[in-house]
User: What shape does this take?
Amino acid sequence: MQDYKVVLEQEIQGIKEKVSQADLPDEMQNKINKEIVALERSVALGSYDEKYEMVSRYVDWILKIPWKKETEDHLDIELTKQIFEKHHFGMQDVKNRFLEYVSILKLRQQQYADQEFRAPILLLVGLVGTGKTTFAYSLAEAMKRELVRIPFGGMGSAQELRGSTRLHLESEPGRVIKGICEVGVRNPIILLDEIDRVAKEVNRDIMGVLVELLDPAQNQAFRDLYIDYPVNLSHAIFLATANNTGDIATAVIDRMEKISMPSYTDEEKIVIAQRYVLPGLLEKAGLKPAQFVMSDDLWPLIVRPLGYDMGIRTLQRTLEGAVRKAARIIIERGYNEVVLNKDNRKIFLPQY
Assistant: This one.
């Protein structure tokens, strides 16, 4: 027991050294120092196991938080245009809105660099499979910002966003703080994905946290229950997506600019599948484009298997299955290529 106590004392000394070397806010530094003093008292009294675990775990999270570190924005409008054209077919009105967004950020950077500016919060609303989420990834790539995606689908507690208090050993921060810790900067693009899909019984609580996150007057001092100290999120860019706005609180809607995502036409979906989806699936499967040939008259059957499909997710799953089957045939039978057509479609395509 005495040896264990010595080991703990050494561990505590290590914690103190890490904290002293960290660039923390002064008040947080004092808060941690008080925690360490209380831990040292516990060790001296012989009651320290759980207390040590709780304090060391807390300090680990505090040291992960990027209190000041940021990435520098790249606001090249031509590069942004190229990236959006590369990743998105059609959707010109939506792309134009993002180009306007970057243009305003650029002007603010040039003319008012010394003034605080809060970027508008965009809410992309559209049917499943219309590419809402990928627009956030494209913006992050264009601006060279890190991206934090927080999925709201089925979220069952506001604690998942805000964290839980340190009453229990298994307590931890919420997804917002975890996200900025993972990317290591305090100014990422934070994607609030499918905010209309939270569990109904906790909708009000989660919407309350969203109001705080999206309100410029409040997110500069966002307080996670586990961290129990204000964290400045005002330099982050927030984007949100939703399938519809019926279950989103009015106070949340009021803090965002809604952008409606149009559905793809059959012709657009065929182009997207040929240019974007299929090449990626072939590469993932280790197939060359020449090894997977699809007749032109088969595409309409894939795009509209049940008469109507609002997005491209079903199309992507259908193509994934066809590519897998083709890969197996090439390996098992030694074929150089596989040709899909109406005559053999039952081999490769799902039968509804």
Notes: Strands lie at 122-125, 147-151, 189-193, 222-223, 230-231, 237-242, 257-260, 292-294, 338-340. Residues 97 and 259 are 8 Å apart (CA to CA). The radius of gyration is 26 Å.
